[in-house]
Amino acid sequence: MDEEFYRIKRLPPYVFAEVNAMKAKARAAGEDIIDFGMGNPDLTPPQHVMDKLVETLSAPKVHRYSASKGIKGLRKALAGYYKRRFSVELDPDTEVVATLGSKEGLANLAQAITAPGDVILVPNPSYPIHHFGFIIAGATLRYLPTGKGQNFMDNLRQAVRYSVPKPLALVINYPSNPTAEVVGIEFYEEIVKYCKEEGIYILSDLAYSEIYFDDNPPPSILEVEGAKDIAVEFTSLSKTYSMAGWRMGFAVGNKKLIAALTRMKSYVDYGAFTPIQVAAAAALNGPQDYPEYARKIYKARRDILVKGLHDAGWIIPEPKATMFAWCPLPEGWNEVGSMEFTKQLLKYASVAVAPGVGFGEHGEGFVRIAVVENEQRIKQAARNIKKFMKNSEKYLEESKENLKNK
After folding, report:
1. pLDDT tens digits along 220-266
2. What whole-number distance in Å separates Cα of residue 258 and Cα of residue 103?
3. Where are the beta strands (DSSP E) in 96-248?
4. Domain housing 307
5. Strand, coil or helix: what is 355?
6. Triad 334, 337, 340: Cα angle to 5°
7. What is the reported pTM?
8. In terms of domains, do 300 and 189 share one?
9. Is the pLDDT confidence value at 1 over 70?
10. Is residue 1 situated within a structural domain?
11. Are 310 and 252 in the same domain?
12. How far lies 311's CA from each of 159, 314, 361, 394, in Å?
C-alpha cells in the first residue's frame, strides 16, 4: 500500500511549488512581492459581459446541469469569431466543442486519443499541459527544441525519422507560452503538408491569438487549406477578454478529434455553468473593442519592462506577442540555473518570476516574466532589480554555496 500510484509516479515534483512556497512565506512576513510568476490577467473583463452574467443568473433554469459540449449559442458564437477573424468556416455541431479553458481541453483530448506507448511530439520549452497531459495519459514524449537558433522543421523531421512507433500527434503553440515566439501562415502550411504526408495529427494551442504588438495578427492553422483533415485548435477567452477564472475555452477543427473529445467530456463533466457560457457568447458576439484595449495595456507594460531591465543592465529581447517576456539569465547566472536565480530575485528584489526550467529542460537558462502588474508596479520592480544587479556577484556566490550545501 506504500507504492506510489502509476500516473503520479510519472509526474515530477512541481517545479514552481518551491517558488510559490517562498512567495507565501514572504507575504506572510509582510513583504510586498511584485508577482510576475503566473500568467494571470489582472484586467477586468468587458462590462457588458459581466452584466450578461448577472442578468442570466436570475433565470431559474440556468442553475441546472449544463451541456458538456457547450450550449448551441456559444458554439455558434465561436464559429462566428473564426469566420470574422480567420475567414474559417466551422460547423458548430461537429467542429466545435466548448471546454473548461484550453488546459482542460488539451488534457481530456490526450486521454481520449492516447494509448500507453503512443509517441507525441511536443515543443520544449512549452506550457506544462502540452507535455504533462500526455504523460498522464501514458504517452511517450519526443521533445522538439524550440527558440533562437532552432529550426523547427528540421527538428520535426528528425524526430519523426527516429521515433518508433511513428508519432500519433504533434503539439504546437504560437504565439508561444513561454517564449513569445510568433509564426506566419507559411509555417503552418509547411507543417500541415508534412504532417499530412506522415499521417500525424496536429494539436494547435492558439490561446494568445489576440495579444500581439505589430500589424500582423497571428494566423490560425485552420486557415491552411485541408488543415481540418488533421488539425484541431484550442482557443480561450482567458487572455482575449481577461476571463481566466471563468474557465472558458474551445477546441475546433477535425471532426474525428472533436468527436473524441466531446465523448470523453460527456463522461467527466457537465460543462461550464450556463450563465458563464451565455456571458461568453456575449463576449464573442458583442463589441470587439476590448482586445485592442487589452493589447495597448500589455504593449505599454512590455515597453516599460524592457526599458527598465535594460537600464538595470539586464538585456532582454522585446516580445512580439503574449503577456510574457522570455528572458535569458543575466551574465554569470547560467552557472547556477534559472531556479536559483528565481529564488534569489525573490529574496533580494521582492520580484517573483517563473524559472525557465519549469517549462522543460530546454527552458533552462531563462526566466519568464508575465506583465500582469500595473505600470507603477513594473517600474518599481525594475528599480528593485537594478539594485539586485548591482550586488549580483554577491548573490551569485551565495547561490553557489547554497547548491554546494544541498
Report:
1. 999 999 999 999 999 999 999 999 999 999 999 999 999 999 999 99
2. 15
3. 96-99, 119-124, 140-145, 169-173, 201-205, 231-236
4. 6-44+290-404
5. strand
6. 130
7. 0.93
8. no
9. no
10. no
11. no
12. 41, 7, 29, 20
Residues 234 and 104 in one domain: yes
Which of 285, 303, 329 is a domain's end point? 285
The last residue of a domain, from among 253, 270, 285 = 285
φ/ψ bin of 183: left (φ > 0), alpha (ψ from -120 to 50), beta (otherwise): beta
The 10 Å CB-count burial string (b at 16+, else e) for 227-243 is bbebbbbbbbbbbbbbb
d(Cα 135, Cα 156) in Å, to the nearest integer? 20
3 state SS of 291: helix
Per the CB < 8 A criterion, the answer to whether 365 and 327 are in contact is no
- Grid coordinates belonging to 143: 521533445
Strand partners, 124: 145
Judge if 319 and 230 occupy the same domain. Answer: no
| Cell matching residue 163 | 521515433
Could you give phi then psi for residue 310, rounded to 5 degrees? Answer: -60, -45
CA distances from 373 to 38, 324, 352 (A): 11, 12, 11
